[in-house]
Design goal:
456 residues, mainly beta, 9% helix, globular, binds 2-acetamido-2-deoxy-beta-D-glucopyranose, Pectin_lyase_fold/virulence, glycosidase, polygalacturonase activity, galacturonan 1,4-alpha-galacturonidase, cell wall biogenesis/degradation
């Protein structure tokens, strides 16, 4: 009867605050026991003690869309931080930015619905949290130590909804609109997040930044346009300046990277994901900024089922010289390395390329790419146990492995690759400055790059 006790306790807590509600507190689901499986980062997640039963804050619901829940949410976190539990079991509309990076030893239960107010996209353009990194912005950020965020996917709620539709429509006419990401985990050390639905981010779904020991599991992500307007970006997760991250057992329907490893992502495991419509599980893009060192190493990507994507396993690095790729997307000449990355067990269905490795990102002219080779090296890469069939788009080509000079790439291996092409022809791959003896595939000379995505 632990939950009865916590309800009684919750009623005691609620009696002296406006932030929380007294009517019908719901049963709190138990914190799920999630473990990294089958792979892990080599370091166990820090121990997370059970929360105090006497400290449960039920956040007061929004009366209507105009009733901003943010002040009540902040008050609840201040009250139940350091050992308590926050419960979102009703419907909440958030209409102002929320900085929740001061947390410690707290559980956050989301069995209700969290919506971000979409009545004025320019309010968020002006008031979202801004990041220098890729000019990003976000509605709210969560950080601190020993945090568990969880919902219950057996109910039809447990929802975080960014209402991206209006932003996707607005950028058709104003590309400069800053569209918030749905969630930033920023400066989180020892955090789990599981069993939550995330819907329709104006920009990316999630960034995991400045963080260590993060485990994400059993998530359900979907970006869906109501009227055919293009869904811009919608990356599932981007990792940045973070170490020891596991993302597993989740389903992602989107239109950009399913998972993307941005600068300084190390010791990351991605496993048992189903991705549909994406741009792949992508390292990069890296090397965009002169004199900046980007490091991505020790990644294990296991058991991915990917459909309807532009790319599957992907590593993208800018060349050594400045490149004018697209409006708001220029760069090249950065330093660093991508090292010790394994993609193991990867099912392909209707993806344009099974494998994409490029050190000419943004530079479709191969001559120019090779003239100024990348300063960011790619080494110790293994891709193994890939099967399924790519799309007809590039048939009989099934992928591309293009380095800008042979001393900038090393030990790139492909093993047990049985991906087919729809025509039934023998699949071919573009290869340049890679050691063909380690590939066991049919290589052809690359043509100029046919990459027209609105990439990042
Ligand atoms: C960031 O925004 C500024 C001003 O709009 C622009 O000049 C710059 O290219 C942008 N940078 C990136 C990485 O998008
Ligand atoms: C990461 O931490 C730095 C400070 O060390 C901060 O400036 C930045 O906003 C944080 N988040 C991101 C996404 O860069
Ligand atoms: C990444 O790490 C390198 C080496 O420590 C450092 O020079 C660089 O500034 C870091 N980059 C970011 C974006 O933090
Ligand atoms: C691979 O992931 C799928 C879920 O997409 C899961 O059903 C299956 O058990 C996993 N296989 C292994 C070997 O872990
Ligand atoms: C990069 O560093 C070099 C050497 O310190 C310096 O001369 C150059 O101005 C820097 N370039 C940029 C774009 O910061
Ligand atoms: C390479 O990465 C794997 C995780 O994918 C890790 O277990 C291994 O220790 C790393 N190897 C080196 C030499 O760092
Ligand atoms: C891929 O796209 C097709 C057509 O758009 C769709 O029917 C299918 O459900 C998608 N996903 C999979 C797994 O095939
Ligand atoms: C690529 O660049 C080279 C060197 O500047 C130039 O001669 C060639 O015409 C370019 N190719 C295309 C297709 O633009
Ligand atoms: C980066 O690469 C360019 C062209 O390949 C080269 O001219 C330059 O010296 C390199 N810079 C560094 C710091 O290695
Ligand atoms: C090759 O990959 C397939 C999946 O496509 C897997 O079932 C098989 O066990 C692998 N073979 C070896 C020898 O690892
Ligand atoms: C190369 O791949 C073929 C099938 O695609 C396989 O039969 C052969 O054993 C592989 N060779 C090596 C050296 O791995």
């Amino acid at each position: 009867m632990a939950w009865t006790r916590s309800i009684v306790a919750a009623l005691l807590v609620v009696s002296n605050t406006l932030a929380v509600q007294a009517e019908c507190p719901s049963r709190i689901p138990k914190r799920p026991e999630i473990k990294p499986w089958p792979y892990n980062t080599g370091t166990p997640m820090p121990h997370s003690p059970v929360r105090e039963t006497g400290r449960v804050c039920y956040v007061r619901e929004s009366k209507n869309k105009e009733d901003d829940a943010a002040p009540n949410i902040l008050q609840a976190f201040q009250q139940c931080n350091h050992g308590g539990t926050i419960v979102f079991d009703k419907t909440y509309w958030i209409a102002s930015p929320l900085d929740l990076t001061f947390l410690s030893h707290i559980d956050i239960v989301i069995t209700g619905e969290i919506h971000f107010d979409d009545s004025d996209v320019y309010y968020w353009n002006d008031n979202s949290f801004k990041y220098r990194f890729q000019n990003q912005s976000v509605f709210w950020k969560i950080g601190g130590e020993d945090i568990n965020i969880y919902g219950d996917l057996t109910n039809d709620k447990s929802l975080i909804d960014g209402h991206g539709q209006v932003y996707w429509e607005e950028i058709e006419t104003n590309r400069a609109l800053l569209r918030p990401m749905l969630l930033s985990l920023d400066g989180a050390h020892g955090l789990t997040m599981s069993n939550i639905r995330m819907r329709n981010p104006p920009h990316w779904f999630n960034i995991i930044a400045n963080s260590t020991d993060v485990l994400i599991s059993n998530m359900d992500l979907e970006a869906k346009s109501l009227n055919g307007v293009e869904i811009a970006n919608s990356d599932g997760w981007d990792t940045y300046r973070s170490s020891r991250v596991v993302i597993q057992d989740s389903v992602i329907f989107n239109t950009d990277d399913c998972v993307s490893f941005k600068p300084n992502s190390t010791d990351v495991v991605i496993q048992n994901l189903v991705c549909d419509g994406s741009h792949g599980i992508s390292v990069g893009s890296l090397g965009q900024y002169v004199n900046v060192t980007d490091i991505v190493e020790n990644l294990y990507v296991f058991n991915i089922s990917m459909s309807n994507a532009s790319d599957g396993a992907r590593i993208k690095v800018w060349p050594g010289a400045y490149t004018d790729f697209q409006e708001h997307l220029v760069g090249g000449g950065g330093l660093g390395w991508v090292r010790n990355v394994t993609y193991d067990t990867f099912y392909h269905h209707n993806n344009d390329r099974a494998i994409t490795i490029t050190q000419c990102y943004g530079q479709s002219n191969r001559t120019l790419c090779n003239e100024f080779p990348a300063n960011l090296t790619i080494e110790d890469i293994t891709m193994r146990n890939f099967w399924g069939q790519v799309s007809s788009k590039l048939d009989p080509q099934a992928g591309t492995l293009v380095c800008s000079a042979s001393d900038r790439c090393g030990n790139i291996r492909v093993e047990n690759l049985t991906v087919t092409v729809p025509s039934g022809k023998s699949p071919v791959y573009e290869c340049s400055h890679v050691d063909a003896a380690l590939l066991n595939m049919t290589c052809i000379e690359p043509t100029d790059e046919r990459d027209t995505e609105q990439g990042r």
